Amino acid sequence: MPKLLEIAELGNPILRKKAHRIESIDDYLRDLSANLIYTVKQVSGVGLAAPQVGKSLRLFIMHSRPNARYPNATTTKPIIVINPEIIEVSSEKSLDWEGCLSIPGIRGLVPRHKTIKARFIDISGTLIQRTFHGFLARIFQHEYDHLNGIVFLDRLESTKDIVTEKEYKKLLKKSILTHN
Ligand code: NI
To answer: Rounded distance, CA 60 to CA 32, Å?
Structure first.
């Protein structure tokens, strides 16, 4: 049975550390990945990185589908990403709202590359090269940052681009939010 993992919040030093490269894929990693996928679903996230659950490892999961926190999310199967590299980015960026399970209660308007090409190992040990666009590219860049001790607040153009979750919900209702 997968387990609900405790999520480290801003101020916990693990969120500011560069995570360690993974040398081999074993049952421990398979369990950790299953627990991350289970946990992100329980807390209405779309991605979760190992450092956010106290493990300093270069692994994250992405699982985009509409939920309470991201009603406009696209639907994908869960993706397990190990030792990722971003090998190409579009020069074009887009601005959109992000939240983070490690930074509860706030959202920020974050610029991200619209398209990225990434290389990573999947949980079966296969080397994958894949291009991500739009919201998925955004999630990938957000989770990738967690492996390098970076949070979305570090990417804001201005602290004026921070809103509380309560005000964000009001903005969402007025539908003045963009979504790529
Ligand atoms: Ni996050």
So the answer is: 10
How many whole angstroms from 20 Cα to the centroid of ligand 1? 18
> Would the pTM count as exceeding 0.85?
yes
Tokens of 100: 């983070």
| pLDDT in the model for residue 180 | 42
C-beta separation of 53 from 147 below 8 A: no
Number of residues that this document lists for the chain: 180
Dihedral, CA of residue 32, residue 33, residue 34 and residue 35, to nearest 10: 50
Which member of 23, 143, 157, 165 is catalytic? Answer: 143
Task: Please check whether residue 61 is in contact with residue 79, taking contact to mean a CB–CB distance below 8 angstroms.
Answer: yes
pLDDT tens digits for 19-57? 999 999 999 999 999 999 999 999 999 999 999 999 999
What is the CA 59 to chain-centroid distance, rounded? 11
How remote is the CA of residue 127 from the centroid of ligand 1, in Å?
Answer: 24
Q: What is the DSSP letter of 166?
A: H
Does residue 143 have an active-site annotation?
yes
